[in-house]
């Protein structure tokens, strides 16, 4: 979703801003823009790729202070005028904004009555005109920004530059901003990725914070005017630079990173001799785990599917009710919160607005939420306070892959931990931890010999729709497979629990309709065979993902075996062919694999 980068210091700003924009591209965007302070404020913006923007910027543009933005349209269509930065009428102030100004309509009406001509349809533009009005009335820049934001309702991560002042003012409320500290120079960004190669020292703004950033330093304050001392933290440098290396796309690279990512997640957390797992960051006592009435997990998209796998594992191993909820629905359904229940927020980015809102709803009602998050120091991680990082490393492809596997791995460990605190025997715990420890190697084994994926691609690439079926723990895996193929290859996909197929989706089946069935070697397999037969009787083509050596392969038209593991952990294996099918189908259809249309990597609006 929208991204921000800013620079002020002793070097030319343009290279930092363009490189920052490129590093923000993974978030998903439809236009980009750039403003630089060079005696005046020069603004360039346009729809399309960052490379299109770069082509319109004069080669020799000078200036040591600037801001830039990638926009993902919310208010107003994808047009050059709606791209950020937005400028005051005299062109002396430029602003970039992430988030949504909810009362933009009434602010806009008032500005228009005063004769201000707004040039875009965005909610953001009102802010720069209000700041300008304050400045015209004699306010200093910080006061002008503060007064403006006090009138705004909604969410913002904003950066503003002024022709007449050598500073960037930024502010956060609901949309993250991080300030990277250098020597005689400072950066501002909407996430840490563009800062990774520039500095390790950062200040993360909190909601309600403002900061005046100059080349010499940073002064933070609150919306009410109080000056504050900001905490400087060190970036986790083991994330390093996420480069493509020998891979053509980040998605493929991230699929192939799964064995190592899983090792990072599991290392040091499995207590094999005790048949237990330790996720210290959750800070749950055995007593608490014994007493809880239920577990609830929240997430969106891929994170929701991982939560759905997790809830089945928890219920199975700990014999405690567990539910997974769509974050975007949760808050609006006035949920009853039991204060001694356990809640988890599952998120790769840690910035998903719907999940963040659900966390706040639970906390408001007295409940506690633990994060199951990838991005260290992200908003949800900090809002939860306690939790476990899944350690996937940076995920840049919009389609999430390795984060799914690591979320499932983390929740599998929690399921063992809560199981052991309740009814799970040490012997069974030992068996489970041993087999969980082997999963990364099995993932490696599968990826080195992934089976006839290209045959599947030929079967699905021209299909009107593709049906994904699975039972039990494979039902969320089927949903994940459908989401992946739909979001990057734009093929309509349906995912159903296999037993539910005969209650409706079967009507879609005709000669050669592709049906992808996930059937690991679990207790539900025989029932899934019945569903396969019902599909075959209607002429459907069965693509079967199953355990190596299982005679169930005979039920398929295309068989994709995956290595054998405990059925509970099968999602970390059965999801792999689904990721590859989506990737190679999108490639054959010539789609933008890493940046599918209309989608964003971190969805920071509700
Ligand atoms: C799917 C995908 C999205 C995200 C969803 C949640 O490939 O990437 O569906 O899974 O937007 O994002 P996080 O995990 O960052 O909360």
Number of helices: 18
Taking all Cα atoms into account, the compactness measure Rg is: 25 Å
What spatial order of strands do you see in the largest sheet?
3-2-4-1-10-9-11-15
Fraction of residues in β-strands: 15-25%
Judging by the overall fold, what is the CATH architecture of the largest domain? 4-Layer Sandwich
Class by alpha and beta content = alpha/beta
Q: Using DSSP, what is the number of strands?
A: 27
Task: Provide the residue-averaged pLDDT.
Answer: 94
Bound molecules: fructose -6-phosphate
Low-confidence stretches: none
Specify the biggest β-sheet: 8 strands, antiparallel
Helix content: 25-40%
What are the salient characteristics of this protein?
Rossmann fold; binds fructose -6-phosphate; 35% helix; 3 domains; seven-stranded antiparallel β-sheet; eight-stranded antiparallel β-sheet; Glutamine Phosphoribosylpyrophosphate, subunit 1, domain 1; 18 helices; 27 strands; 606 residues; alpha/beta; single chain
């Amino acid at each position: 979703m929208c991204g921000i980068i800013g620079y002020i210091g002793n070097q030319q700003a343009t290279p930092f801003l363009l490189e920052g924009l490129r590093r923000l591209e993974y978030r998903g965007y439809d236009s980009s823009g750039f403003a630089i302070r060079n005696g005046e404020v020069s603004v360039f913006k346009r729809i399309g790729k960052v490379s299109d923007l770069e082509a319109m910027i004069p080669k020799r543009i000078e200036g040591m202070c600037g801001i830039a933005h990638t926009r993902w349209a919310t208010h107003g269509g994808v047009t050059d005028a709606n791209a950020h930065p937005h400028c005051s009428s005299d062109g002396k102030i430029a602003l970039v904004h992430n988030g949504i100004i909810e009362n933009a309509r009434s602010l806009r009406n008032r500005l228009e009555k005063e004769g201000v001509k707004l040039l875009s349809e965005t909610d953001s533009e009102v802010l720069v005109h209000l700041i300008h009005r304050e400045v015209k009335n004699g306010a200093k820049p910080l006061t002008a920004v503060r007064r403006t934001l006090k009138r705004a309702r909604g969410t913002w991560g904003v950066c503003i530059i002024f022709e007449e002042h050598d500073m960037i003012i930024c502010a956060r409320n609901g949309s993250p901003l991080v300030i990277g500290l250098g020597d005689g120079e400072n950066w501002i960004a909407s996430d840490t990725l563009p800062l990774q190669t520039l500095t390790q020292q950062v200040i993360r703004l909190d909601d309600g914070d403002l900061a005046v950033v100059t080349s010499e330093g940073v002064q933070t304050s609150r919306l009410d005017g109080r000056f504050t001392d900001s905490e400087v933290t060190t970036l986790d440098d083991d994330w390093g630079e996420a480069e493509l290396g020998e891979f053509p796309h980040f998605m493929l690279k991230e699929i192939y990173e799964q064995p190592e990512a899983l090792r990072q997640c599991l290392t040091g957390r499995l207590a094999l001799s005790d048949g237990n797992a330790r996720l210290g960051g959750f800070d749950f006592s055995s007593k608490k785990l014994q007493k809880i009435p239920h577990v609830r997990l929240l997430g969106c998209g891929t994170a929701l599917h991982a939560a759905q796998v997790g809830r089945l594992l928890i219920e199975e191993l700990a014999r405690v009710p567990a539910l997974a909820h769509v974050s975007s629905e949760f808050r609006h359904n006035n949920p009853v919160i039991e204060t001694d229940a356990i809640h988890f927020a599952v998120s790769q980015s840690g910035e998903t607005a719907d999940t963040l809102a659900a966390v706040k709803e639970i906390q408001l009602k007295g409940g506690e939420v633990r994060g199951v998050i990838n991005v260290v120091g992200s908003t949800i991680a900090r809002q939860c306070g306690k939790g476990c990082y899944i350690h996937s490393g940076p995920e840049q492809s919009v389609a999430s892959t390795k984060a799914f596997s690591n979320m499932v791995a983390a929740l599998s460990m929690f399921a063992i931990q809560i199981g052991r605190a309740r009814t799970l025997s040490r012997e069974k715990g030992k068996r489970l931890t041993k087999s969980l420890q082997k999963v990364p190697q099995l993932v490696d084994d599968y990826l080195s010999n992934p089976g006839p994926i290209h045959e599947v691609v030929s079967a699905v690439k021209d299909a009107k729709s593709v049906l994904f079926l699975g039972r039990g723990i494979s039902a969320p895996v089927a949903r994940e497979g459908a989401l992946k193929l739909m979001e990057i290859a734009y093929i309509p996909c349906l995912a159903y629990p296999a037993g539910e197929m005969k209650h409706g989706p079967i009507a879609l089946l005709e000669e050669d309709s592709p049906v992808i069935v996930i059937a690991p070697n679990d207790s539900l397999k025989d029932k899934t065979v019945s569903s396969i037969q019902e599909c075959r009787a209607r002429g459907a083509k069965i693509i079967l993902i199953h355990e190596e050596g299982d005679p169930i392969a005979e039920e398929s038209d295309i068989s994709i075996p995956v290595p054998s593991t405990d059925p509970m952990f099968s999602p970390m294996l059965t999801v792999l062919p689904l990721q590859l099918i989506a990737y190679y189908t999108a490639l054959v259809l010539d789609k933008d694999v890493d940046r599918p249309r209309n989608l964003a990597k971190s969805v920071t609006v509700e």
